[in-house]
Amino acid sequence: MFKEYSDKIIFIGISQDDKGKIDDFVKKFELSFPIARDAEKTIAPAFDARIPTHILIDGQGTIRYFEPSSPETKDLEKLLK
Question: What is the C-alpha separation between 67 and 42, in angstroms, rounded?
Answer without folding.
Answer: 18
